Amino acid sequence: MNTTQEHNERIAKMTFASVYPHYITKVERKGRTKEELHQVIEWLTGFDEKKLQKFINDKATFETFFEKATLNPNAHLIKGVICGYRIEEIENQLTKQVRYLDKLIDELAKGKKIEKILRA
């Protein structure tokens, strides 16, 4: 199943600040920490906690967020299904990057070891 243009545009315009609290809630509800969440986000994007806070304060869109990110060279190893989409089959680069992040957070919430999540 591939994404539609409308779907891709909606994701691009969504703000990181609007989704971030849901990330925290999801991982903490499953016994993981905000620090682990930040470790996973930093691995994927290169953004430390200070930079994340700036994106939140600026209400940056995912488009801006990933434009400024330095994606981890091993990000291509993130595979599987998230939100009904097989990551490897997503053609739109931005949508794929957002789904990478979703998948990592999902794995964290499911209790996977950090070393496995970070594709070490």
Give a nutshell description of this structure.
By secondary structure, the chain is mostly helical. Helix content is 60%, strand content 3%.
Characterize the structure shown.
It holds the Pfam family DUF2200. This protein has seven helices and two strands, in the order αααααββαα. The protein is mainly alpha-helical and 120 residues long. The chain has one domain (5-112): uncharacterized protein sp1917 domain (Helicase, Ruva Protein, domain 3, Orthogonal Bundle), CATH 1.10.8. It has a two-stranded antiparallel sheet. Strand 1 and strand 2 (85-86) form a beta hairpin. Helix 2 packs parallel to helix 6 (93-109) and helix 3 (34-45) runs antiparallel to helix 6 (93-109).
Provide the residue-averaged pLDDT.
95
| Percent of residues in helices | 55-70%
Q: Uncertain spans, ≥5 residues at pLDDT below 50? A: none
String of helices and strands: HHHHHEEHH
Largest sheet: 2 strands, antiparallel
Termini distance? Answer: 29 Å
CATH topology: Helicase, Ruva Protein, domain 3
Whole-number tally of structural domains: 1
CATH class: Mainly Alpha
How are the strands ordered across the major sheet? 1-2
Question: In total, how many beta strands?
Answer: 2
CATH homolog superfamily? uncharacterized protein sp1917 domain
Rg, Å, rounded: 13 Å
> How would you classify the helix and strand content by structural class?
mainly alpha
